[in-house]
Amino acid sequence: MTAPTPPFRDPHLPFAKRVDDLMSRLTLDEKTAFLHQFAPAVERLGIAAFRTGQEALHGVAWMGPATVFPQAVGLGATWNEDLVRRVGEAVSREARAMRARDERVGLNVWSPTVNLLRHPLWGRNEEGYSEDPRLTSAIATAYTRGLRGDHPTYWRTAPVLKHWLAHNNETARDTSSSSVRPRVLHEYDLRAFRETVEAGAVAGVMPAYNLVNGRPNHLSPYLGRHLRAWTEDDLLVCSDAGAPSNLVDSEHYFDTHEEATAAALRAGVDSFTDHGTDSSKIVARVRGALEQGLLTEADVDAAVRRQLSVRFRLGEFDPEHDPHAVHDGGTADRDGTVKDGGAADSAADFDTPEHRALARESAEQAVVLLKNDGVLPLAPDTHVAVVGLLADECKLDWYSGTLIHRSTPLEGLYERFGADRVSFAEGVDRIRLRRTDGTYLHVLPSDDSPARAHGAEAALDPALLAGRTDLPPLTTDAVGTELALVDWGEGVLTLRAPDGRYLSVAEDGYLRASADQPGGWIVQETFRLEPHAGGHLLRHTGTGRLVQVAADGAKVAADTEDGTAATDTEVFEVVVTERGEDAVARAAAAADVVVVVAGNDPHINGRETEDRTTLRLPGHQERLLRAARAANPATVLALVSAYPYAVDVETLPAVLWTAHGGQAAGTALAAILAGDVSPAGRLPQTWYADDADLPGLLDYDVIGGRQTYLYFEGTPLFPFGHGLSYASFGYAGLTARVRDETVSVSFTVTNTGEMPADEVAQLYVRAETPSVPRPRRELLAHRRLSLAPGASARVSFEVPLSALAFWDVAHDRWRLEPGPYALLVGASSEDVRLSTTVTLDGEPALPRQVRERGLAAVDFDEQSGTAIVDRTKVVGDAVTPDSDATGELLYRDCDFGAGVRGVTVSVAGGGTVELSLDGGPARAVLAPDAPTAGPYDYVDLDGAFTAEGVHDLRIRLRGSLRLAHVGFSG
């Protein structure tokens, strides 16, 4: 007799009922085991193992060959939601196809990254879309919709947004705290997440490593208060790798891992990514927390329920009804039922001609023409010299798949103009390293070609191809090997052998020419040359050890018996056989136009775990640029990079920028240079002119620090939204009408040029008479248009009035302020072509009712010298002087009514609180008799304080004191 089908297997029941049924069948131990990233199978119920997390930022990553699209910041530069949605769809189809061959490929994809590109020195700039929350949200929403698929019930993949919240620094990233005032929180950092989640194609989020307002993001109260209030879907919160352990090990926020795990679970973390595939430690911590009464089974159930909800949406329990399931030949009916004979998704949905064409289209649309004095596009008969360290490179980043196809700028120009019209000079310094005995470092020949690393090698990450031990170590001989030296900045070098392999150090400590490219979590292909005794020491940066030559080959110095680094020195003389700038100058002088391809290696000096220190190009590349420009005034600078640079563009006739463009990067760049495609990428973030224009890396107050195009008052090198075209465009006919809580804006864009081209029309707003600091201009909407010569298009936007509101800290809510608002239409944030003004009724400002409500310390209007910290380990904020010095807080328009006579401040720690009105002398000074026992041990201090009517209140804090609340009594 056949056993009845359990309800959780019944595809006709709602997912919620099926989850309820399955939860009732799982034991507590089984549910506890589900809390780790690698959830085990439950064989008695026929439930398969499940892994959260599959990197898919711009293609399926770490799982071998896949289509590689432009970096995320490059996709942001397209300003094209339709394109990005199609990229997301292609990535999700490849994920399904790859999973059909390799079950390690996951469907819970950890992307996109919606952290705002607030600071251009952030090492992970390449992962975000924009400094603007609305543009970020628009691109992220498009990508997640593509990843999700359009079936109403079943998802092709389940996207998880990274990294919640206010995360823009790699420096001390697991211990630093971002001080985020309420206005910045709501108007900036939360906005990108909120609008993407509300669009309905997000399965969850990943908290960031950092702390916000003194509290680790993995304990964020905003997960419950905001994130899960934005949607009725169950959202899965997956921890970042190792972050649960950081709560104790590096952040010292808790004394025990049981406390930390329980707190994270109660805060809303559902899946713990910790200790790799070993789930035993997390399971033991959860069990310990249950035994100690720190958790209840209901806490565990809430997390498991959210995970199961995602698994049901992915069709795991309905393989015959999942329209995205890859079958051998079936099709999906409209209701999702798979029929014999075909499949909605196919194992052939991998490296398809359509995906290759989409990779090229994406790379073309990502190119931004920053400056052009007429040298571009290049004439068909132009003799081009392509030079520079990235001229013949197709770089991958940490979150790339393995390239199946590749195209470098040199290859793209060869293909487009012909090899007889293209010359090349890489610009490396060619050197030999001579020892004090007169011998030179020598690379022994190898028959193994490095080309295989460019192809379909099934490595989890291309970086894993480094560190090989099957090749011979370097040795010495009387002639030596000429090495190609590149200085990537700050003295960090790579050395490459003539066969194309980079010098690398494997686990056995030997130095070999073994790596196709620099890479890995700890890069093993970088070195420093340190002056010493008339020569240089060669230090390997990955190990921090010096290179020495022994009888069995070159290797890094081993530790001594007491565990300290060896101090024996091997001194090398650097014998230069050719300077890179000399080769560049020769090539440039012989060409009609020289294209200098400069930029970064995504694994060196600016990457995950490492922020940049400057906007400047590395000195080596500045040398090459100067040499090219001196030899040939017709010098085009093509920057290929993960982030902005500050470069001297005054003497350059043309400048372009593109992010690392994936497999079609070179072909796309050549098409732009030749004029086959008119460039229409737009900058997704401000390009500052100088390091002096930048805020501190850890200053997250975009309002007070006047950061990003929203508030920056200086002159940028290139503004947000900037990008030129080979065509020209006219704007006309702007109309704006307010009705039904909406502003309707329309205008006409006309291609007044001579070639088909895209234009990105941008709409900004500026409050003309704000009562608080508001953005200089703020993006409301945009549209990328394709127009033939002479063609026009009417562009219309429906903007809800709520988009013009700001967070009113006086009343803890959004408020639309009455008054005039300028609507600005144009081609960038600074290139405004049309403008008009609408006057809105809004809601007038009201004074703070401090006599009745008091003041939350964090709700200040302005501050100096303070930081926001956690009031408790669970919820709430307090304010403290930065670095135990003196800080000030300003609260405007405080209404004391008919009068108050006393004040009560809630404080912890030690120090003083001074209160004054309207810039006058202190009216009250309060201090605890002695510092409180700990930072969370608050006491109320009472004092005399007289005031009546409406005044600005200024509070000065001294010492290590934390202020949480101020109350007044009559």
> How large is the share of residues in beta strands?
25-35%
**Alpha-carbon distance between the two ends:** 80 Å
Task: State Rg.
Answer: 30 Å
The profile of the biggest β sheet is: 8 strands, antiparallel
Unreliable stretches, pLDDT < 50, 5 or more residues?
Answer: 329-343, 450-466
Mean of pLDDT: 95
Count the DSSP helices. Answer: 18
The helix content is 10-25%
- Outline: globular
Which class of secondary structure composition applies to the elements? alpha+beta
Topology, number of strands: 50
Structure explained in plain terms:
There is one protein chain. This protein is α+β, with helices and mostly antiparallel strands. It is built from 18 helices and 50 strands. Strands 16, 19, 20, 23, 24, 25, 26 and 27 form an eight-stranded antiparallel β-sheet that branches. A six-stranded mixed β-sheet has the order 13-30-29-28-14-15, with helices on both faces. Strands 41-44-49-46-47 form a five-stranded antiparallel β-sheet, with no helix packed on it. Strand 38 and strand 39 form a beta hairpin. Helix 3 crosses helix 12 and helix 4 runs antiparallel to helix 12.
Gist of the model:
The protein is of the alpha+beta class and 970 residues long. Helix content is 20%, strand content 28%.
